[in-house]
Inverse folding.
């Protein structure tokens, strides 16, 4: 199962924007910070905009800005904005209904998968962009 870096890059982007304290940030600056292409950043910003997490200021000196305060943006908000896949998925083809394992594996795993998803979502819901900013600032001072 391939994994996506969209979530990590989206958290990076919104944290960088938050650290600019209300000043618009260009996709080029964000791309440089995240070591990726500005087109990737613009695609992620579009997803964040659609979710009401970022906005764009047009014109000279324009760029991306937060649409909410950093305290009002949770990592779960970001995850839901950029990740469309389920965290856990089942077999591509239905397992054998004749096999004792194949006929029961999905209902047995479904409960565990749902609990794991709920635990991850609860953890992400408890962390805001403001908290990430504070941790980065603290980490920077410790160096």
């Amino acid at each position: 199962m391939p994994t996506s870096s969209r979530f990590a890059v989206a958290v990076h982007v919104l944290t960088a924007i938050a650290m600019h304290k209300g000043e618009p940030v260009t996709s080029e600056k964000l791309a440089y910070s995240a070591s990726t292409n500005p087109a990737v950043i613009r695609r992620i910003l579009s997803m964040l905009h659609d979710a009401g997490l970022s906005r764009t200021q047009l014109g000279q000196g324009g760029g991306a800005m937060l649409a909410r305060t950093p305290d009002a943006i949770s990592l779960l908000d970001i995850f839901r904005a950029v990740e469309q896949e389920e965290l856990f998925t089942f077999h591509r083809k239905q397992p054998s209904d004749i096999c004792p394992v194949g006929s029961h594996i999905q209902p047995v795993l479904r409960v565990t998968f749902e609990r794991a998803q709920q635990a991850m979502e609860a953890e992400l819901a408890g962390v805001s962009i403001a908290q990430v900013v504070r941790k980065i600032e603290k980490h920077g001072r410790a160096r």
Q: What stands out?
A: Residues 105-125 form the longest helix (21 residues).
